[in-house]
From TrEMBL:
Keywords associated with the record: Amino-acid biosynthesis, Aromatic amino acid biosynthesis, Decarboxylase, Lyase, Tryptophan biosynthesis
Pfam families xref list: IGPS
Domain Indole-3-glycerol phosphate synthase positions: 6-255
GO molecular function, one term: indole-3-glycerol-phosphate synthase activity
Taxonomic lineage from the root: Bacteria, Bacillati, Actinomycetota, Nitriliruptoria, Egicoccales
Residue stretches of biased makeup (Low complexity): 261-271
Organism: Egicoccus halophilus
Keyword Cytoplasm: no
Pathway: Amino-acid biosynthesis; L-tryptophan biosynthesis; L-tryptophan from chorismate: step 4/5
Protein name: Indole-3-glycerol phosphate synthase
GO biological process, any: L-tryptophan biosynthetic process
Amino acid sequence: MATYLDDLLLGARRRVEAAVAREPLAALRERAVDAPVGPAFAAALAGAGVSVIAEVKRASPSKGPIAPDLNAPTQAAAYVEGGAAAVSVLTEPDRFGGSLADLADVAALGVPALRKDFLVDPYQVWEARAAGAGAVLLIAAALDEPTLARLHDEARSAGLDVLVEIHDEAEAAAAGRIGAELVGVNARDLRTFVLDRDGFARLRPHLPERALAVAESGVRDADDVRRAAAEGADAVLVGEALVRAADPRATVAALLAAGGDATAGPATAPAVDHRPTGSEAR
Ligand SMILES: O=C(O)c1ccccc1NCC(=O)[C@H](O)[C@H](O)COP(=O)(O)O
């Protein structure tokens, strides 16, 4: 029986086909390398304490509509004022209500931005680059290992960082083999939507030694961030709790403080970008 994840992957393939018909890969690449490179994503997470990757999320398969009227750049600006190191933007339209326009609008703020979507084709990597993203998400559960490695290499050659998302020991090992430098443990099973709140602690020792570790999904409050910090997270990725918050700026600041960053508060300096320039990424 087809799962939600299968449907999401099928939808992604269909959107790629339609997009290629409008703009072939060669033309997209040409446009992408001429666009300014987005601020570095991974470097922004490497500071003291647990960094916050704050997500722009209007809806989800597990919850339905969450914040349907959310304005992506306004929400992202509040996150940045609260001290978020980076912003995750769901670009999947059918179940999450997102778009590449949201990604471009958020990236235009000058914040490191992650394209969070169901990537199955190099074309989507170049769409992210053209929109000004600093990173893309690759979901190990959605890709066989050769495809995961190919998309990882494509993203790196496009000058993007890659957050490799895993759910178990086998996927953690695959992340190591492909040279992942940024690995997220998603507490949410993408087929059943059940949250495994012990998953990060269980999988943390299996992550590639030098990789930054991100705890994704189900982070509700300061206690959850304290727990992630104690379990060895470098960053937490938080969606629903922030889009439902009455004051997203203050909520990010409170999560950041719980993560042990003595400098918690409004972000003042952009992250240093050590990645290739647009023409070097060509
Ligand atoms: O959120 C879902 O229901 C979902 C279902 C199937 C695939 C992916 C899904 N979410 C994407 C994410 O990974 C989360 O948006 C992200 O980690 C933030 O999670 P949360 O803080 O629990 O909103």
